[in-house]
Amino acid sequence: MHRTICCFSDLSAYFSWMSDLLPDVDALIRVIRGQRVILDKDLAALYGVQTFRFNEAVKRNRARFPEDFCFQLTTEETSLLTSQNAMSKTGRGGRRTRPWAFTEHGALQAANILNSPRAVAMSVYVIRAFVRLREAIASNTTLEKRLNVIEKTLLSHDTALRDVIQKIRPLLLPPPDPPKRKIGFHQDPD
Fold it and tell me: Which domains does the chain show, CATH number per domain?
């Protein structure tokens, strides 16, 4: 009889323990073509398979991956990744094909086609990373709107303060010297 021994009293403690061991999935998410994506090599590493096996599974199930789930990078995009040290240069044992980029939905679909326990468990972390990124962007947008409102308010206050200062400034100047009386007899020209 096989018995599983678990040292965690609940699943939340297990996921907390696992999150300490996992790589920072947020750092693997990039923005390419205006979409938040994760590269095939990163997904394969997270799901515990080799990149070429991962890509084979995706090619076998291509119908499950429409263009809004994954797309292949262009040569220019690949060269940009290579120059940023995200990929090894060709001719040095690196990959010979252009990488695939998977959106949030594509990453989840990839876990479904791999059908391994690790892939299913890791897909939860990948999706949570995409959600955290989406929330961060939304909060930044909200913060930006609030800053714009504050800036407009400060500009209106700034112009009002300028007007007040211009009106107060003459009052702060010393009064002009009173005209001196002329000595002698003076006749008013009428």
Answer: 23-88+95-133 (3.10.260)
